Amino acid sequence: MSLLVADCPRCGAKEITFDLENQVQVSKRFDWQICLEVFCVCRACAKPTIFLVSQKNHDGSDFINNGLQDAGFAVNEIVKVERFVGIQDNNAEVPPEYLPENIDNIFQEGAACMAIGCYNAAATMFRLCLDLATKTLVPELGEGLNNRIKRNLGLRLPWLIDNGILPEALRDLSTCIKDNGNDGAHEGILLQEDAADILDFTFILLERLYTEPKRLELAALRRADRRKIEK
Q1: What is the reported pLDDT for 181?
Q2: Strands 33-42 and 48-55, how do they pair?
Q3: Where do the DUF4145 domain residues begin and end (predicted)?
Q4: 10 Å Cβ neighbour count for 36?
Q5: Which of 74, 50, 79 is nearest to 64 (CA)?
Q6: What percent of the chain has a predicted confidence (pLDDT) above 70?
Q7: Which runs of consecutive H residues, i.e. helices, occur in the chain?
Q8: Which end of the chain is less packed: N or C, by CB atoms within 10 Å?
Q9: What does the CA dihedral 130, 142, 151, 119 come to, rounded to 10 degrees?
Q10: For residue 30, what pLDDT band results from cuts at 50, 70 and 90?
Q11: Are 190 and 123 in contact (CB under 8 A)?
């Protein structure tokens, strides 16, 4: 029997031992880090919990592929406990692939807020993803560029599109991001459709900036490997 040490969300016991009975892979990050949902039973209250765990380093792949439930020891040295699976995971949007870790985490937080109907919070998280992703695209100097545009996401996006740094095809979708701070989130007036518009734009923009270039890079590497084999 494999073990997992974590805080129990059912009885509140801290750093308690769980019996780990099964696993399901749910995603892979950065082309190597496997994320799993593991079914565990608390030894304090005997109630089950599903935890989301992620691979700590490359060395743990064999244990994960063979099934953590068959490892026969405490698997905390192989995986990190991220959180338990709860209502926030209901129909939560999966982030695009190959995002930087900080943006990936923020997107997941926004998706969790969206899943439980916290639309103002969700929109704030998605705006933060956009803010972090586009800040690095702004040059030090540029025609019509000023500090207000650099600071304000709602002004920055049209400037990036006008200057060809972001594709023109994103302009219509980008109108969901206004220049008034948090698109009404600070007044608590956003509706589900407002947050959904921001989610759609965020997903597409992040795919353009991170997922598509990484897929092209990996495809080029595979092509180079095939040419080596042919020689």
Answers
A1: 46
A2: antiparallel
A3: 112-202
A4: 20
A5: 79
A6: 95
A7: 61-66, 101-115, 119-135, 147-151, 153-162, 171-174, 192-206, 212-230
A8: C
A9: -30
A10: confident
A11: yes
Amino acid making up residue 57? N
Nearest to 79 by CA among 122, 18, 146: 18
DSSP state of 38: E
Q: Is 191 helix (H, G, I), strand (E, B) or coil?
A: coil
pLDDT of residue 62 exceeding 70, the answer is: yes
pLDDT tier, 55 (very low <50, low <70, confident <90, very high otherwise): very high
Which of 45, 47, 48 is closest to 37 using CA atoms?
Answer: 48
Break the chain into its structural domains and give their ranges. 2-85, 101-219
**126 in Cβ contact with 200 (< 8 Å):** no
Give me the torsion for CA of 15, 21, 23, 29, rounded to 10°.
20
Q: What is the mean pLDDT of residues 109-116?
A: 91
pLDDT tens by residue, 180-231: 445 555 567 788 999 999 999 999 999 999 999 999 999 999 888 888 776 6
What the block records as the tokens of 1 is: 């029997």
